[in-house]
Design goal:
The complex is a heterodimer. Chain A is mainly beta. Chain A has one helix and four strands. The longest helix of chain A is centred in the middle third of the chain and has 10 residues. By secondary structure, chain B is an alpha+beta fold. Helix content of chain B is about 55%, strand content about 25%. In chain B, helix 1 packs across helix 2 and helix 2 runs antiparallel to helix 3. The two termini of chain B are about 15 Å apart. Chains A and B meet through strand 1, strand 2, helix 1, strand 3 and strand 4 of A and strand 1, strand 5, helix 2, helix 3 and strand 7 of B.
Chain lengths: ~70, ~170
């Protein structure tokens, strides 16, 4: 059994979020974060580490271009 | 660490002067037709009921750069405008003490500056309140989704940061 961890730090004054994932292999780490924050926040910067390039458990989905009105 | 993501919960913006000053500070060209500010990079700022919201494309790099830069610039300019009003009020008091104005002139200027400062402070308070409500709703939404995805959620507050720790075993 492996552990997947996501830590979200939310600045309550500015609305900025810093999200780290640990133990989630492959692109599913980004997909999972995107699903979690969808309709709540806008992700504008990603940084991938070695684990990202390892084979993941969940297949990725293609995100379609979408015009968003907040 | 697998990845790190920076994101933001966006608010609506109320002060049109601060919006355009922010666009100028960011060096962005725009056209304002009263209800819509169109930026050359394709972003639209929609002015509805005196609230300005951002319409953007989720996979456009320039748009995401704007999402990253604009809120900070706007908040900075709004705070600076309020501070400028406070300084003007203090200067006016000094000048009045030195009898540089007639009583009538002093009162008129004092009233103008005070009203402007109070208006800006009210805008700031309203935006802060709305953002807090949006953050609370977003946190609730994220926690519900996380639980649906099988994560155990732990929440803590550290200073001005709310920290959500999501853990699941697979």
């Amino acid at each position: 059994m492996t552990e997947e961890k996501i830590i979200l730090r939310i600045n309550e004054e500015t609305g900025e979020l810093f999200i780290e994932t640990k133990g989630i292999l492959g692109p599913s780490c980004v997909t999972t974060v995107n699903k979690l924050i969808e309709n709540s926040a806008v992700a504008f910067d990603y940084e991938k580490t070695d684990e990202y390039y390892m084979e993941g458990h969940i297949s990725t989905t293609t995100k379609q271009t979408q015009r968003i009105n907040i | 660490m697998s990845s790190s993501t920076r994101a933001i919960i966006l608010k609506n913006y109320t002060d049109i002067e601060c919006v355009t000053a922010s666009l100028n500070m960011l060096g962005l060209n725009y056209r304002d037709n009263g209800t819509n500010i169109s930026l050359d990079n394709g972003i639209n700022l929609i002015n509805k009921n005196s609230e300005i919201s951002i319409s953007y494309l989720s996979n456009n790099k320039a748009h995401l750069k704007f999402i990253s830069d604009f809120p900070k610039t706007y908040d900075k300019i709004l705070a600076e405008k309020i501070e400028k009003m406070r300084i003007e009020e203090a200067k006016l008091k000094e000048a009045a003490a030195l009898n540089q104005f007639s009583e009538k002139e002093r009162k008129e200027q004092e009233m103008r500056i005070r009203l402007e400062r109070k208006k800006l402070e009210e805008i700031k308070r309203k935006e802060e309140k709305e953002l807090k409500e949006k953050i609370a709703a977003s946190v609730k939404n994220i926690k519900e989704k996380a639980e649906k995805f099988g994560f155990v959620v732990k929440e803590e507050i550290r200073g001005k940061e709310k920290i959500l720790q999501l853990v699941r075993r697979i």
